[in-house]
Amino acid sequence: MAVKFEGWFNGTFVFCFLLSCIMGFVLMYSIVLCSYYNSALTTSVVGAIKNVAVAYIGIFLGGDYLFSWTNFIGLSICMSGGLAYSFITFTTKSSQVKAEAKESGTVITLDPTGRGATIF
What we know:
Subcellular location: Membrane
Distance between the termini: 60 Å
Transmembrane segments: 12-33, 40-61, 67-88
Structural class: mainly alpha
Strand content: 5-15%
Shape: flat
InterPro entries: TPT_transporter
Order of helices and strands: HHHEE
Helix content: over 70%
Keywords: Membrane, Transmembrane, Transmembrane helix
Organism: Pleuronectes platessa
Largest sheet: 2 strands, antiparallel
């Protein structure tokens, strides 16, 4: 149980734990802000890029990764596939919205903050 954990009396552990909690809050808040100012699709693309960065940083700085070319190439193929999927989804969605707007004769302009759109 967490209550019986002996590390709660260790100052370094408590500091690192609280810092981890604060960083988790900042991460979640930044994701909410990203979704507010952008579309959910943009947030997912940014999330995919973040996951790639975290994976490669973890490989080189984490210390517990046993390097082998087969594993590294496999991870790189996996990361490339995830990024390609996000990019294809993003460009397909963007072109569909533009095509629908052009087809219906509507003009969509964003306000200066990027939060809203004016449709004519």
